[in-house]
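Predict the holo structure. Ligand: fe (ii) ion.
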Amino acid sequence: MTKAYDQYRESTLGRADVEDTPELLAYYEQLRTLDVGALWTVANKIEPWQPKSESLPVVWRYKELRELVLRSVQLVTPEKAGRRVVYLNNPGRSEVSAAVGWLYSGLQVMHPGELASAHAHSSSALRFIMEGRGAYTIVDGHKMTLGANDFVLTPNGTWHEHGVEADGSPCIWQDGLDIPLVNALEAGFYAVHPDLQQAVGYPVDDSVNIWGAAGLRPHDVRWSKPYSPLFKYQWEPTYEALLKYSASRDDNLFDGALMHYTNPVSGGHVMATMGASMQLLRPGFKGKAHRHTGSFLYHVAKGEGHSIINGQRFDWRERDIFCVPSWAWHEHVNASHSEDACLFCFNDLPVMEKLGLYREEAFADNDGHQPLLAAN
Ligand code: FE2
Ligand code: FE2
């Protein structure tokens, strides 16, 4: 849609437009004492013409953050801190500790031999491994070994704990949770495991061995929980799938070759409240601009490039994280002539879709590209 259309759509026709008078101000005050209010004083704010995200587009650059994340190891122990995490604080959403919209994210560091206590919470969580050797996660007794660019789930209500093997190296990963959403819904519980640690009850990596074969479903294993039984999604098969997908069809105009991580039982999103995807932007890819509802947090798994978000350019390279707030125009570019770029992303799409709130539109003017407002 065009700017002119937006302005027309946002005209004051049919909207509350009442000027304050001494009588009205006294009336409002009288209402306030009874815990009520006049709708026309707030209607335009609480019913906007279109989503107005309070989140700002931000890029968090790993070269600035990595040293600070590592320094937390000297400053606090995991026992005292609970989790040694530097969280991403969107300047528009700092009051709820959100990275974007109702999504939380942080960078967690663990040294070899460290182990966090097992716990469970109402928030769903995911983890994207950034660097290090020997990281593992245990979910309801299923232990998963983790390497760079692997993606692991710890869904709502599951007992989980993370650690790094004694012969590993310092590990950093990105956490992604729906904490702000669960808190907004006032539905959050948190519990520490009664034994502090949980026993590993299955062969290591059994979740991948049982559920991870593409196109095959195990005959005698039942699963009815509202999240994927495949807790770990490995980088190598994901990248290989993207290369094949990209080689076999034309690019999506906005996203290049994008694949969603799926629950192998349902084919749907990996968890009830958060979805995730990995996309490949081939060398020279110049995506067109679009916008949609939902909040999106991107992690550069490979390569470098830039995105234009609401007219502002954000350069990114491997391990940087950036966000696209709901209804923000965005377009992604891989300017390299030789290297592809891969973007991991997690989002609240399952919520948007289930509640019937997903909407999307393409940028119509200027051959589908936003005019650049300012460099970042
Ligand atoms: Fe947790
Ligand atoms: Fe998009």
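The chain is about 20% helix and 30% strand. The longest strand covers residues 104-110.
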